[in-house]
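Long-time lurker, first post. I've been practising inverse folding by hand and with some scripts of my own, and I keep getting stuck on stretches where the structure tokens seem ambiguous. Below is the full token string for one chain I'm working on. Before anyone asks, I'm not after the true native sequence, just a reasonable design that respects the backbone. If someone could post their per-position residues I'd love to compare against what I wrote down in my notebook.
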């Protein structure tokens, strides 16, 4: 079985991290395959929402630590510049919404890949661990960038240093994730959200994502100027016309994604 699976249904691509006996820990082959599948999701216009989840009981335990002591291991430089950084960049730059459906423990790079998604939901039995400090590393895969912006500097600092486990309910309370969902209805709730997003104005969502990406670092003036530019692009889409027409005609819109 491939270490990452892709299935496409009704505009929703579901990417499943698939090394369940290793808690979906990443080796080089898996990291490169995930990048390829994210590229496929970008190129396929029929895909209008991407869900990333894990097979079995975990979302991902991060780097496969056994790979590091195997024959011919990837170097640290390769692990960041060729494995994790391109994954994070692809998720943030994908012009479509990405949901991380965290079905179990998300540790190390696994946690930070989840946390860079546009919407992070987790089942009530899931947890998040900045496991890096316990093995002498620093949070990578965007951890030192996204975590303080999600939950504030103090909580991010404590979690990064202590490596404490955060259960999904607490992750929701502190703003690390969007929602902690009941385990019994988790998959159905994720599919409902993904299906909703796949029927929305995809180009408008992509422009929203672009503006939010920039808001982390832009000044207030620069962000207002960017909204001006992006809103003009949004207003040129067919979906904008459709949205306004549907409202005026008191009917449901039929968005095409462009
Ligand atoms: O060079 C670099 O490393 C740079 C890159 C860094 C990126 C990173 O992600 S660093 C962080 C790496 N991840 C970790 O340190 C997490 C290690 N795992 C754990 O702490 C725990 O496994 C969990 C808290 C995630 C889950 O605990 P639990 O009790 O539910 O499961 P377990 O019994 O510990 O693990 C089950 C199996 O998965 C076990 O294998 P076995 O004994 O049944 O054959 C365990 O060894 C394996 N496993 C879990 N995590 C990893 C792993 N195997 C390889 N790599 C792992 N990360």
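-- Answer (accepted) --
I ran through it position by position. Result:
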């Amino acid at each position: 079985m491939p270490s990452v699976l892709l299935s496409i249904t009704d505009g929703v691509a579901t990417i499943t991290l698939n090394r369940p006996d290793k808690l979906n820990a990443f080796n080089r082959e898996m990291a490169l395959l995930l990048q390829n599948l994210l590229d496929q999701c970008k190129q396929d216009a029929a895909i209008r929402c991407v869900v990333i989840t894990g097979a079995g009981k975990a979302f991902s335990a991060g780097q496969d630590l056994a790979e590091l002591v195997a024959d011919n291991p990837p170097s640290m430089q390769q692990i960041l510049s060729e494995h994790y950084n391109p994954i994070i960049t692809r998720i943030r730059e994908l012009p479509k919404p990405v949901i991380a459906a965290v079905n179990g423990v998300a540790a190390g790079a696994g946690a930070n890949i989840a946390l860079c998604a546009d919407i992070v939901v987790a089942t009530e039995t899931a947890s998040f661990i900045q496991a890096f400090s316990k093995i002498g590393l620093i949070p990578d895969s965007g951890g030192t960038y996204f975590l303080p912006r999600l939950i504030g500097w103090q909580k991010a600092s404590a979690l990064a240093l202590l490596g404490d486990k955060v259960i999904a309910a607490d992750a929701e309370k502190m703003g690390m994730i969007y929602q902690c969902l009941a385990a019994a209805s988790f998959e159905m709730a994720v599919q409902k959200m993904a299906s909703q997003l796949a029927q929305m104005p995809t180009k408008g969502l992509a422009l929203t994502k672009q503006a939010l990406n920039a808001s982390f670092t832009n000044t207030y003036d620069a962000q207002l100027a960017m909204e001006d530019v992006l809103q003009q692009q949004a207003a040129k889409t067919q979906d904008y016309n459709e949205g306004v027409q549907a409202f005026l005609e008191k009917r449901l819109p039929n968005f095409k994604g462009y």
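A couple of notes from the structure itself: The chain has ten helices and ten strands. Residues 22-23, 25, 61-66, 68, 76, 79, 105, 107-109, 129, 131-132, 135, 137, 140 surround T3D (CB under 6 Å). Happy to go over any region you disagree with.
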